Amino acid sequence: MNPHLDRLKPYPFERLNVLLDGLTPNPSQQPVALSLGEPKHDAPHFVVTALTAEDTIRHGLATYPPTRGSDNLRSAISLWINRRYGMELDPAAEVLPVSGTREALFSFGQAILSDKPGATVLMPNPFYQIYEGAALLRGATPYYVPATGLPDFDALPASIWPNVELVYLCSPGNPSGQVVPEQTLAALIRKAREFDFVIASDECYSEIYRDEDDPPVGLLEAAANADLGHRNCVVFNSLSKRSNVPGLRSGFVAGDPDIIARYYDYRTYHGCAMSAHVAAASELAWSDEAHVVANRALYRAKFDAVFPVLAYALDVAMPPAAFYLWPKTPVDDETFTAALYRHQNITVVPGSYLGRTHNGVNPGKGRVRIALVAPLADCLAAAERLADFVKTHDFG
Q1: CA distance 165 to 158
Q2: What does the pLDDT look like over 275-324, one tens digit per residue?
Q3: Residue 149 clears pLDDT 90, i.e. is over it
Q4: What tens digit of pLDDT does each residue of 85-109 get?
Q5: d(CA 267, CA 248)
Q6: Model pTM?
Q7: How far is residue 210's CA from residue 41's CA, in Å, rounded to a whole number?
């Protein structure tokens, strides 16, 4: 067995199951899951129609999918990047469809990291656990960058940078919803050139944001605006959140053509190519913005309804993007999560499960992540119950 498997930590939702196991939730309260960041809005009708077209399905099932993906899909992704970020990428050399960003973020680490002693991977803390798993299973050393809100790269000791091979970035962030500023991205790109590491920017929440006139900046966009080019830069994005199709397992990797070429070599062996019928539906989804605008409006309505209710009882900030709230808790986050489940039948994720203790501090401790993915009425009802619970429950 791979000895690095012993370095893996239990996944947050496995830990949550253990925490709640044996607890009996209040049967008089309707269960509401605000834990898993799984979109619950309806998938676009045209995507469903495409996936049920008999000719498309027959073609997809009868052919081995190409590792590089279809020409049409790569072109659709490239055109979307141009519309969204105002920059042009070569669909043949700088875009690669993948079976969801979870798969790609993990396998990218396996392809990029050198296996040299001391190889270091930077990641925000708290973080999406796939970043850590990718580093650990490649024998690399994770280094956790404090990020209760934004990752603070300036706080890193100078001795770290020479060993850095890969930086995982998440903007808009999970769990904070914060957007890394353009000047921070540009500074990190300059650092990547100086020390020759790769930036892998997870941008899967890029299309869930509050201000319709102020979309979050992307890594490639920041590189172009600073006239830096996109060497050392790779971005990951997905249809899961943008188009409410997490089960489609469809995303892309784009950026530095030299890195994309080597990652393509890896993927020819990795064997995770996108089926032709999934590619056909994905092409339609990347080509349409109307359903994305409507999706943002649904999340905006939930935040507008829920935030004032929770802010009455908890210390919580309104995030500019993503679909999470990241409030502080009146007691430790595990105790709060268990009590909330038992008394109100509401599940959230303890913030400490999403972070790691580094230099004696777990920046997720004393917070919970609330995913506003349920229907508006359910989110509002849960927020009202949660606020009342905080105000009336004796945590002593």
Answers
A1: 15
A2: 999 999 999 999 999 999 999 999 999 999 999 999 999 999 999 999 99
A3: no
A4: 999 999 999 999 999 999 999 999 9
A5: 19
A6: 0.95
A7: 17
Closest-CA residue to 37 (of 322, 353, 389): 322
Q: Quote the CA–CA distance of 295 and 276 in Å, as a whole number.
A: 26
Q: Do residues 77 and 285 touch, judged by C-beta distance below 8 A? A: no
User: pLDDT category, 70, cuts 50, 70, 90?
Assistant: very high
Judged by phi (left if over 0) then psi (alpha if -120 to 50, else beta), residue 227 lies in left
CA–CA distance, 263 with 270 (Å, rounded to integer): 10
Closest Cα partner for 77 from 239, 316, 260?
239
HSE, side-chain direction, 13 A CA sphere, residue 241: 26
* Beta-carbon contacts of residue 150 (< 8 Å; ≥ 6 apart): 173, 176, 178, 180, 181, 184
CB count within 10 Å of CB 103 equals: 15
Q: At what angle do helices 54-61 and 276-286 cross, to 10 degrees?
A: 130
Neighbouring CB atoms inside 10 A of 215's CB total 16
Dihedral of alpha carbons 8, 12, 13, 19, sign: positive
Give yes or no for a contact between 220 and 87, defined as CB atoms under 8 angstroms apart.
Answer: yes
Length of the chain measured in residues? 396
Convert the chain into a string of H (helix), E (strand) and C (coil): CCHHHHHCCCCHHHHHHHHHCCCCCCCCCCCEECCCCCCCCCCCHHHHHHHCCHHHHHHHHCCCCCCCCCHHHHHHHHHHHHHHHCCCCCCCCCEEEECCHHHHHHHHHHHHCCCCCCCEEEEEECCCHHHHHHHHCCCCEEEEEECCCCCCHHHCCCCCHHHEEEEEEECCCCCCCCCCCHHHHHHHHHHHHHHCCEEEEECCCCCCECCCCCCCCCHHHHHHHCCCCCCCEEEEEEHHHHCCCHHHCCEEEEECHHHHHHHHHHHHHHCCCCCHHHHHHHHHHHCCCHHHHHHHHHHHHHHHHHHHHHHCCCCCCCCCECCEECCECCCCHHHHHHHHHHHHCEECEEHHHHCCCECCECCCCCEEEEECCCCHHHHHHHHHHHHHHHHHCCCC
> Rounded to an integer, what distance in angstroms lies between the CA atom of residue 94 and that of residue 257?
5
- Cα–Cα distance between 209 and 224 in angstroms, integer? 22
